[in-house]
Structure formats: C-alpha cells, structure tokens
C-alpha cells in the first residue's frame, strides 16, 4: 500500500494536488451553513431524564431563564434618583425583543402585599412610580425587606444593591439582550455600578467571544508554527506544504461536520486548534527527514521515496494512536464530546493521508532551484547538535539517577492525581477580571445569590400540598437549606402562606403555617384572587397544588458548591422522612451543569482507560514485543500523571476543557515514543551496536522530535494570553504535553534501554516487512 | 396622580361629546355613543341581577380548573356606581369565601373579602382596575365595565360577520393603562360588544374577548357565555352564567360587612 500511495503522488503530483484542492473547495463550501450552539445543556442528550424534568418544571411553573442586571451604589441605592433610573431601565428593557415583559422581576413590576395604616390589605405594584422623596425610597426598601419573596432578590439588606431579573424567551438570545441592556444602561445609568449576571448570559457571551477568540487563536498559532518551521527549514515554499495540509485537514473535518448538519458547540469550535498542531506533526517528520537526506543525494525522487519508506510505519502508528485517543471520546455519554472526538479523529486521518499523498506531490512540484540550498548540516546550527549530544550523553551516563528521578516524579504526580477536584461553572470560563466574573462576585456578595436552582416537592394527588403536614415539612426543609453556607435564600409557597397569615392577622408572630387545610387553601385562594398577578403564586405552586417549587438561591455556581447543597437536602430528607407520598427532584441550570459534569468525568475516565489499553495493545503489536510496548507507554504515562497531578496540586478544578484534553495527551504523548523506538530498532538491526544506534538516533530523528516540541509548544504560547480560560487551558496543555512527553522520551529512553540488554531490540519481527 | 386626572378627562370628554352630538345630530351615532350604549346594555341591564357563574380557567399546559360562585349586582346609578357581591361555592376548601366590591367609576373601588377559616372580614385594595378578577384572565374592568369616557373612540368601519352587521371601533386610553389599544366589534342589532381585542404598546395582540352565547332573558339580551383568551400567557377563561334573574329586588343592605359574613339564604341558594 505504501508504495502505491507514494507512487501516485510522485508520478501524478499535479493530479493529487488538484484533487486535494477540489475536495477542500467542496468542504469549504459547506462552511456558510454553520449553526452555533453554546448551550451546555446540550452536553446532555435531548431526552435525558434530568433535562426532561427540568423542562417540565420550567413549564409547569412558568419560569424562564433569567438575565440578571445588578445595580450597586455603595452610598445607598434606595434614593429617588437611582430608583428612577432603575424604573427607566426596566421600562426600556421590557421592550427588548425576546424579553418576556409580563414576567420581569423589578421594583416597578412585582406585586407587594401589605397592610396600610388604615388597616386595608393592599396588593399593589411595589413601586408603581419612582418615589419623589427619600422617605418614599426608604419605604420601598422597607417593603422589600419585609417581604420574604422579594428580600435578597430586589434589595440587599444593606440597601446598596438591587437587581432586575429579565426573563428571556430562550437562552440563545441572552448575549444579544445583554448587549442591548448594556446600551440602555450607558444611556440611562448614573453613579451606580451595573452588573450583568446569570448563567445564560455567561453561556451566550462565551459563545460570542469564543468565535472572536477562534478568529485570533487559530490563525495566530498557525502563523507562529509557520514562522518556527521557517526558522528550522528556511524555505518558505517548502514549509508552506505542511501548513496547507493543516489547513486542509481543518477545512475537511469542519466542512464535513457542518455539512452533516451538526451544530458547532463549544467543544467542536476547538477542532481547528487541535488539528493544526497534530496535522503539522507528521509533516515535520517528513520535512526533517527530507531536509537531512536531500543534500546527500540531490535526487528529489529518491529522497522522497526513501523518506516515505523510513517514515510510513511510524507515521501510520502515531496517527492511528491519536485517532484512537480522540475516537474513544465517542464512547462518552455526552453528545458534543462524541462529535468532537469523531471529527478530530477524522481530521487526523485526513492529515495523515495528506502527509503521505499531498506532501510528496507538493514537494515534487516545487521548482528544483528552491532545493539547491535546502538541507545540510547548517539547520538549527551547532546549538541543536550540541543539545542533542548533551541529552544523549547525560541520559546514558546518569541512567540510574534519571530512571529513579522519573519514578519519583511519577509517584509524586500520582499523589497529585488523588487530589483532583471536579468542578465547572460557565462563569469561570472567563478570566477573573472579566465583567461577568466581577458581576458574579459583586452581586453574590450583597444579594442572596444569582445561581437559582429549583427543588420541587410533589405529591401524587391534586390538592395534596394543602396538607399542613406537607407545608410544615417544606418549611423545615427550607430552613435546613438556609443553614448551608452556599444558600443565600430559599423562597417557596410556604413564604407566601406565612406572609398572608401575617398580613391578614396583622401580627408578624402569626406568620406561620396554619394547622388547618382549609386555612391554607383559603390563604392561597385569597392571594390568587386579591388582584395581584396569579402567575406570581404559580411560580411556587401548581394551580392543582400537587407540586411546589422551592427557589434555592445560591452564591456559588461551581458544581461542588451546588452538589453540596443537593446532597444536604438529600441527607435531610433521608434523616427526616417527608410525609407519605412526597417526592423531591431538582431542576435549574446550576443543577443541570452538575449532572452533565458528573457524567462527563465518569465517561472521560472510562474513555481514557479504554484508549490507554487499546494503545498499549497496539504498541505491543507494532513492536511485536511486550517489553517495547510497555516502554513506549512511559512518556504517555508520565505526561498524563504529571499534567493531571499538577492540576491536583494546583487546586485548579477539573473542568470540561481539562477532561477533554486527556485524549489529546494520550494521542500526542505516544508519538515521540513511537518514532524513537521504531527507529532505534531499525538502526540497531542494521548496526547491532547500541551506542552507535543512539548516536544516529540523536541526529535526524531526535532533531525532528525536538523541532516538533519547539514548534508546537511555542506555537501555542500566545494562547496563554487568551481572554477565555478554556483556551488558556488548551494552550498550556499543548505546551506541557509537548515538553514533558518529548523530553521524557529523549532523556529516559536511552537510560532505560541501556539498562536492559539491548539485544532484545533486534527481537521480534517488527513492523518492517 | 392617575385618578386626579380622571375628573378633568371626564369634563373634557363630556364637552367633546356635547359638541359631537350637536354637530352630527341624530343622523349617525358617534363611536362614543355606540360604546356608551353597548356598555350600558352589557353592564347595567335592569336595576339589579343575580346569576350562578361557573368559571373555567385553562392554563398554557391545557390544564383546567373550575370555580363557581353566585354573583349579585345592584346599580346605584346607570353608567355610574354599582355594587357587586360574589359568594364562592366551589372548590370545596374555599366555599363560603365572599367578596364584595363597591364600584366607583371616578375613584378606586372599595373591596372587602370574607375568609371563612378565620371568620374574618378584611378590606382589601388592589393596584388598579386592570388587575385580574379572582385569578382569571378577566380583569375587574372586564367584569364590571370600563367607563366609556376613559378612552377616545373612533369608528374604523362597518363589518358584516356571518350575516350580521358590526361597528368596528378603536378605543385608545386617554391615560397610560394596562393596554394601549382596544378594537371592539359592537353588533348593530343588539348593541353589545361581541368581540374585543386588546393590544399592548408594541402593537401585539394580548387578549381577546368573545361573547360566545347570547340569550334573551326577561326581554334582555344577556351574554351568558363569555371567554377571554390571553394570547401572551396562552391561558384562557370561560365564564358561563346560569339561573340569570333580573330585578330580583336585591337590597342595598346586602352589600355590607355583616352580610358578607352571613349572606341571606335566599340569595345564595344554588
């Protein structure tokens, strides 16, 4: 097969290039059909139980996703001027397309129920018109603080903070609505500080910024890689070949993804960033080999044939292992991760195919005179050669300390692994100084919490919730939750009932759950018919009174913090069993995130272990030697252990991007080992002399490895400065994978091999036919 | 602020009405005259009235709830003050809850409620007449009538629907209100509003009222089935009137706190 493929490209270079370009055009033509999806909810299958439950709850209680606009004024927000601004922002915000105007929570929108000085029970808009006096403003604040449904939402206890909750028709428009709100705030706002918060804004803003980031990061990495390769190989025209391969792989796989109708999710938007370096890797080996060989023969055809002969097997294996690493993601239960894994795998396959078909053809078409000064020993200069010599001699001379050191590092890393904490929060995808992160901190400092989850208690029969025992249980459960440090407030129908009792009897001490079922029923009925918006009540209890919804406002949205609240409720219900028939369930975006993250972690570790085993088996097969197979897994194991161990020690939560990168680590870390071992063995077979084999290996092959380390690692340095944390993470990973696995290979392999009887290298049939 | 403007508006409107009458003469009814007549026909029929009302509320999930009450009305003055008495008979756990409204076109209504579980009468007041009537899609104004002088009316066209002629009238509130525009189809033969469409400030259709069934009772054209659909909230309410009686001789003394607690049997018999 090898000869057929290489033959085609050498004999019909123009045809190969033409066909490649045509296919690329076809896939490029699919791009405009792109459909973006930034909703992490889609990390779960459409019909996943928790999602169905969530949507059932949202529908049953008429709840929409919120954009929260926080307003802060340290000197006191409740004054006529600031309140007038809030009223104006609310009015104009209600006119934004996609905002559900009748459901807005704001001082000018919500109803308050209270007793007037004349003893009249009054239901009216909390703040029909902004007050004209400071006394009026003080009264608004007093009313909010006296109403358990509004307190902690519309005002902080210290009166410095308020919030307007804008419900939106769907999460996708959150970013657009937030921009429009921003414009309104710019025009209307005064000396108050304004903050936009809420999970939908974070998710939707991330989507928008993600594409900006892609437009910067991918070309930047591309350019840097190009410049580094130019530095090593000098000839722009030659270096362009691998770059074209990278670009084509990206266009083919993204084109296929879009053409097949898949949405571009946060995950799949990173496909180019993953494919560019992987695609370039093989081409660098080809060029390195070509570069070092050409000047010996000055025969283009011969050089190409020899290069491909030498590299075909290792390239095929490095590609297959990387494909396996990513394809294993298809076994995770998370749809966007499956898509990501499948199409990165496809892209790697394309890159491999192009590097054995397109690159030789491309090289054949480059004018001869370009090569006149190509190759030779001058590349990378004597520094490269000196470095190679240093690594080789160090490894061989200090083999015992090096191996011992490696084992120690590995042990430390495994300890770090045990300290990994799984957690994610869409808001933390932004850097600490991003307005959304600042908003998150400021608003959760003063208000009861911007992360709203819903704890739903259900009874089988309609009207069952009017049972005083059930209501009192819900009240106790709420009180229990409120003791949790992450819970700022809980609001439920129990609060409505207590408020009604207090107002009807004119005594705060009477704000308790009544002992009679009729009394509860009549309080609820009275609230409903009193002239306020009945929908307000039905956000807490269904009209049939068979389900109640306890709003749990949390200050932190990280899944650890959220799960701890969920766990606390579960434990309480276990220790204090509810009245017969009462069941509980959670909904809300913070909870959805917890669920998919748990699935992700489990799915990822399974995928990782599975592909580790597959790769090991492949290595044993490739080398026809269990011993070499095991040795080849060393850099990979060290890399995974060190990278994830460092994450454990550093206290950085294991989030979605980090989880996904495990397959990249697996796929890339093995590459250097394959090249190193396969070629060491070939040289050893020819010479039967281990020190000589090492000396030769540390010429062309080790130089190619070093070039790869430098090109990919440095190429991703700009991503350290990205605005979005997942991009920084990806950049850091590429850097770490390259440096750790590359240098582990170069430093430890000579030491390990020399500690054994090198004769085993000649054993087995090897892949060489 | 909203209310103090009403008196002035009334004067201006009356002046305009007088001017309009003198200009147009008897030849053609003005839009305002039609609306006034329709209003009086629908809300001020006879001097008093009694009916059993069955209300069905349908929410956007398609789930329905029923509530039943006896409703008594007494007109103090045609086109002016009225008193309403509502006595709930179902659902069971709110039975005997009673509700009384003294409607005052020029000022806030006065409302009282009786809570049987507490044996307590409380005066309550709601934010405005545009608020929900007993939790339904109807507002207080829909039930007791919106005074025709609160809006500027314009006859858009005459329209024939299923062989019957209608005046199509556009009404725009003189002051900021819960709706921005209303289109009413008033039947030419009965002079009753048989369809109303309420639009918000964005020009979107929010609510639709339909007179679903009209019967002649004691010589009075009576809308016995009415529906209100909220297009935005995707909910609807249907109200059916049965055992409708006019001029039953409801005394003014019924509409007091004392009778709110214990209404005379003859009025509340189902």
Explain this structure to me?
The complex is a heterodimer of chains A (769) and B (270). Chain A contains 26 helices and 11 strands. Chain A has helices at residues 2-11, 13-28, 49-60, 80-94, 134-145, 174-188, 199-233, 236-259, 271-297, 300-327, 335-365, 381-397, 399-417, 435-446, 468-482, 493-505, 517-529, 534-538, 559-575, 589-623, 626-632, 634-650, 656-687, 690-697, 700-715, 725-755; strands spanning 36-37, 65-72, 111-115, 121-125, 161-168, 193-197, 264-265, 451-458, 487-491, 547-554, 583-587. The model of chain A is unreliable at 765-769 (pLDDT under 50). In chain B, strands 6-5-4-3-2-1-13-12-11-10-9-8-7 form a 13-stranded antiparallel β-sheet. In chain B, a hairpin with a 5-residue loop joins strand 1 and strand 2 (64-75). The longest helix of chain B is centred in the first third of the chain and has 21 residues, at 4-24. Chain B is globular, with a radius of gyration of 19 Å. At the A-B interface, strand 4, helix 17 and helix 18 of A face strand 5 and strand 6 of B.
